[in-house]
Design goal:
Oligomer: single chain
Largest sheet: 2 strands, parallel
Strand order of the largest sheet: 1-2
Order of helices and strands: HHHHHHHEHHEH
Strand content: under 5%
Radius of gyration: 17 Å
Number of helices: 10
Structural class: mainly alpha
Shape: globular
CATH class: Mainly Alpha
Length: 191
């Protein structure tokens, strides 16, 4: 009988069963689907000031409340719909964040028209391919980078909200634009 060796993960990836799934299956995997990219941008903005686990626990509620992150539908949300969302206990009920999601949907659609896809636009900040870092510990991972600074500034210039450099870097990590799994993590070499 062979014994299974324990899996080495990024330390944060072990703290909750939901984190384990997210870490092992999603975080750092390159995303090129516009709807998924939009979802992650909205969720990263919703996380501002909160822990990511809070957002993960509410993600399915967000998908239901925000029409599965269909930017075309969200761009048409009016004050009545925003008021309804503010009463939804399944999401983070922050008026500025909800209004930002609507504004971001409009700006997202404009970018899709200009670049053919949001994917084409957003991946330019890393030269079109994932940047593979070689961090040995979580302490080495910065809250932002020159690339996330540039992304945040450009998104703001184009009308996006809740897209500061730190939020943009978290988005880049989540969507696989950068590989910030620590080198001892089993996912580091897989990605």
């Amino acid at each position: 009988m062979t014994t299974k060796r324990p899996v080495t993960r990024c330390p944060w990836g072990n703290s909750d069963p939901l984190y384990v799934l997210y870490h092992d299956r999603e975080w750092g995997v390159p995303v090129h689907d516009d709807r998924k990219l939009f979802e992650m941008l909205i969720l990263e903005g919703a996380q501002a000031g909160l822990s990511w686990i809070t957002v993960l626990r509410k993600r399915e509620n967000y998908r239901a409340a925000f029409d599965k992150f269909d930017a075309t539908k969200i761009a048409r949300y009016d004050t009545k719909k925003i008021k309804l969302l503010l009463s939804n206990e399944g999401i983070i009920r922050n008026k500025l964040k909800i209004e930002a999601a609507v504004q971001n949907a409009r700006a997202f659609l404009d970018l899709q028209k200009e670049f053919g896809s949001f994917d084409s636009y957003i991946w330019q900040f890393v030269g079109g391919k994932p940047k593979k870092n070689a961090r040995k510990s979580l302490k080495e991972i910065p809250p932002s980078t020159p690339e996330s600074d540039s992304m945040g500034k450009n998104l703001k210039k184009r009308g996006f909200k809740f897209v500061g450099s730190t939020i943009c870097y978290a988005f880049m990590q989540a969507c696989g634009m950068v590989n910030d799994h620590i080198v001892s993590c089993f996912r580091y070499n897989e990605l």
